[in-house]
Design brief:
The structure holds two protein chains of two kinds. Chain A is of the alpha/beta class. Chain A is built from ten helices and twelve strands. Chain A has helices at about 10-15, 65-70, 95-100, 120-130, 140-155, 170-185, 200-215, 230-235, 255-260, 265-275, and strands at about 25-35, 35-50, 50-55, 75-85, 90, 105, 115, 165, 190-195, 220-225, 240-245, 245-250. In chain A, strands 6-9-10-3-11-12 form a six-stranded mixed β-sheet, with helices on both faces. In chain A, helix 3 (about 95-100) packs across helix 4 (about 120-130), helix 5 (about 140-155) packs across helix 6 (about 170-185) and helix 6 runs parallel beside helix 7. Helices cover about 25% and strands about 35% of the residues of chain B. In chain B, strand 3 and strand 4 form a beta hairpin. The N and C termini of chain B lie close together (about 10 Å). By secondary structure, chain B is an alpha/beta fold. Classes of the chains: A alpha/beta, B alpha/beta. The interface between A and B is medium-sized, with 33 and 24 residues.
């Protein structure tokens, strides 16, 4: 499992930074590796409820590793640093516990589960989460009512419920299904990992509409993407650039446009100059 | 170690819940096998001469046979002289009605969730319960009798309907068919008999529940089901045994005869014999011959099996498609865990014109389990337009188990269409992680994925059985979550 070690200094820093109630995610000096390769080399990030943050970077910069570490994939080993989800130590929790606490990840490559219907899967997920929060489990009828309302929100056909999870879905259907699941599970913190990859512009638009419908003052979102174009439709409050496992630049939504025009190279030069 | 693998390994370590033993006085024959034992069994049953002769012929032929070595299973040689061939719970007196069944016995079946009390009419299932070597109770007999349906123990059928037994016994599985079928023919002690007359659709599920209780006893039961023209029956079979560290032999024979036009027999099995412990010690050797014959035009036989128990399973429920337009089906889920071994599949023999068969086999291997599918599709010369579709999928849990597929196709008619599809997959870390990320525990995730894998078979089972089968798979894999 994930090692969640931390220095005393790190923890003090975290407690201070979460003194304000509406901070959803605090990442402090996060280092992580896969096998022997260090991928994240000191990531710091704070995301408040109601905000949408975009994390951009080219291939190999550590974007998907960051998403994986937050969701709790055990291929990644955290070697240093802390992550707080609201006021809880995220790295101490199992992946399913993180999910039940309200962390949702939309997968870059959603997984197929043959023979298991989407509605069965989602009902199990929702009820596991409700149970964790001390809420009564929904019965079949209550679940159906909820789900139908969410289908409307994301503009998805009811057929989807009966189909096996992601089996035989097109790339666009898979991504829309992720957003639909997010709508049903109503997470506090959503991480969208390259949700736009492999999609044509129309599909990106429909997916983005779904995401936008989910924006609320109580929910934080972290949108991980390679390209700026997704951010035309999901307009972020903040943009961060990840380079060689560190956030080297942060700014407003205009930073994304700058990257679109200038590429990532100027940042690399800048980063080299400062080290 | 990865989470998924440790999950699966822990799942593989669960207890067998039906492993208790009932302390009940038994009437046993001495261990070992010779002509005297065969005669003694026949005498205990007060059998007519034709049956004794049939047994003796089978026994003499069995002496000339050797155990089959071709299945992909491994076990030390069986000493057939060490086995007790007859064990019956001693009745306190002659049974007149259900209420007179020994309370100890009734309690045993209640504990297994099998109610012998006819008051439980709502369940809509008629049950014949076989304890060690004899049938102890058959429920709903009278109600079925009004429709002309005969559903009783094999011994009773021999006494009351010898002409039907004489006509159909061994007509599908001859006494000399194979080593274990011949052994069964010589020493079978009881089983179930079912006869559906012309034009009758059996209004309830018929069910036999087999229980091996005594130590060192072999169970050799025989089931014979006959459906006349236009008749329909759905038949369920369930099995359990106490936990013991010695191996016990179960060599049953099931014969299905769809005699008439449009007759239909659906046979479902949920087999949960004691599989042995985590180290592979003990457990049942399940060496069973099951075969059906579709004799009538447009007749149909379906086998559905969920095999989760036994140390070793060796069975190939088959269909001989004699009648034109007849249909054979085989749906199977076989799960092997710990050191269990299964070599199972089917045979579809196409003889009549326009005959069709469907085979759907799902093998699940966990722990050190070894799972082999062995299936034969044979299309004879005269079988114009025969069609077969076979699908055989294997699912591996963990990295120490194995899945094997041995399909045999023999086609002698050029108009035949035979399709075979096979796949092998592993429960991926990715699948489990995906479920966990949605808040579903690893154990629930594995159950969900395995049940999804088996869905095509489960939907063939009668409702209550499907629920039971799903639970059983869950229990069979319980504890493998890390």
């Amino acid at each position: 499992m994930i090692a969640g070690g931390t220095g005393a200094y790190g923890f003090q820093c975290l407690t201070r930074s979460t003194g304000r109630k509406n901070v959803m995610l605090t990442i402090f000096n996060l280092h992580a590796r896969v096998a022997d390769k260090e991928i994240l080399r000191g990531v710091n990030l704070k995301v408040k409820a109601g905000e949408v943050h975009a994390i951009m970077g080219k291939n190999g910069s550590g974007k998907s590793t960051l998403a994986g570490v937050l969701a709790g994939r055990d291929a990644f080993e955290v070697t240093e640093g802390d992550v707080l989800f609201e006021d809880k130590n995220l790295l101490d929790m199992d992946p399913e516990e993180r999910a039940r606490e309200g962390l949702f990840m939309a997968f870059q490559y959603p997984v197929e589960i043959p023979g298991v219907s989407n509605s069965y899967f989602l009902k199990a997920a929702l009820n596991a989460t409700r149970k964790h929060r001390g809420l009564p489990e929904l019965d079949a009828m209550e679940f159906l009512t909820l789900v139908k309302e969410k289908l409307k929100l994301i503009h998805i056909d009811e057929d989807l419920l009966k189909r096996p999870v992601n089996e035989g879905f097109s790339g666009g259907e898979k991504k829309r299904n992720e957003i639909f699941q997010m709508a049903v599970l109503e997470p506090k913190l959503a991480i969208l990992d390259e949700t736009d990859s492999g999609l044509d512009i129309d599909t990106i638009k429909t997916v983005a509409d779904g995401v936008n419908a989910m924006r609320s003052k109580d929910r934080a979102m972290v949108v991980i993407t390679h390209y700026q174009r997704l951010l035309n439709f999901i307009v972020p409050d903040k943009v961060h650039v990840l380079l060689d496992g560190r956030i080297v630049k942060s700014g407003g939504k205009e930073l994304a446009l700058e990257l679109e025009n200038k590429g990532y190279e100027w940042l690399e030069t800048e980063a080299q100059a400062t080290t | 170690m990865t989470t998924a693998t440790s999950t699966i390994q822990e799942l593989a370590n669960r207890e067998y819940k039906d492993g208790f033993y009932t302390d009940i006085e038994a009437d046993m024959l001495p261990r070992g096998l010779n002509e005297e034992i065969v005669r003694a069994i026949s005498a205990k049953k007060d059998e007519p001469d034709f049956l004794l002769e049939w047994r003796l012929k089978a026994y003499r032929h069995w002496l000339t046979m050797t155990e089959p070595k071709w299945p992909n299973v491994h076990y030390p040689p069986i000493n057939f002289q060490e086995i007790i061939y007859y064990s019956a719970p001693k009745p306190k007196k002659k049974l007149g009605s259900m209420e007179e069944v020994d309370p100890e016995l009734r309690a045993t079946f209640e504990k297994l969730g099998i109610s012998l009390a006819e008051q439980q009419r709502l369940s809509g299932v008629a049950v014949d319960a076989v304890f060690d070597s004899v049938s102890v109770a058959t429920t709903f007999k009278e109600k079925l009798g009004e429709l002309g349906i005969i559903f009783c123990s094999f011994s009773e059928a021999v006494q009351k309907h010898p002409e039907l037994i004489k006509k159909h016994l061994g007509s599908v599985v001859p006494a000399k068919d194979n080593f274990y079928a011949a052994l069964n023919a010589a020493v079978f002690s009881d089983g179930s008999f079912c006869y559906i007359p012309k034009g009758v659709r059996c209004p309830m599920e018929l069910s036999t529940y087999f229980r091996i209780n005594s130590a060192e006893t072999g169970q050799f039961e025989r089931t014979l089901i006959v459906a006349e023209e236009g008749a329909y029956v759905s038949y369920l079979e369930g099995c359990t045994a106490p936990m013991r560290d010695t191996n016990q032999l179960h060599a049953a024979v099931v014969e299905l005869v769809a005699v008439g036009e449009n007759s239909q027999i659906k046979y479902s099995t949920v087999q949960n014999w004691y599989p042995g412990d985590k180290e592979g010690k003990g457990g049942i050797y399940n060496f069973v011959t099951k075969r059906g014959a579709c004799r009538g035009w447009n007749s149909k036989i379906s086998w559905t099996q969920v095999e989760t128990g036994s140390a070793i399973t060796w069975k190939y429920p088959s269909v001989i498609l004699q009648g034109d337009d007849s249909v054979g089906e085989f749906y199977s889920v076989a799960l092997t865990n710990h050191f269990q071994q299964a070599d199972t599949g089917t045979k579809m023999i196409h003889i009549g014109k326009n005959t069709s068969s469907t085979i759907v086999s799902k093998g699940i291997s966990a722990g050190h389990g070894q799972n082999s599918y062995r299936g034969q599709v044979k299309v004879m010369k005269g079988a114009e337009n025969a069609r077969n579709y076979s699908q055989c999928d294997s699912l591996l849990l963990g990295d120490r188990c194995g899945a094997h597929t041995f399909p045999y196709l023999e086609v002698r008619n050029t108009s035949a269409q035979v399709e075979h599809e096979a796949s092998t997959s592993k429960i991926g870390e990715d699948q489990i992680f995906y479920c966990k990320q949605r808040g579903i525990s690893a154990e629930d995730a594995v159950n969900m994925i395995v049940n999804g894998f088996c869905r095509e078979v489960f939907r063939e089972l009668p409702m209550e059985f499907a629920v039971e089968a799903q639970k059983l798979l869950g229990v069979s894999l319980e504890g493998s979550v890390g």
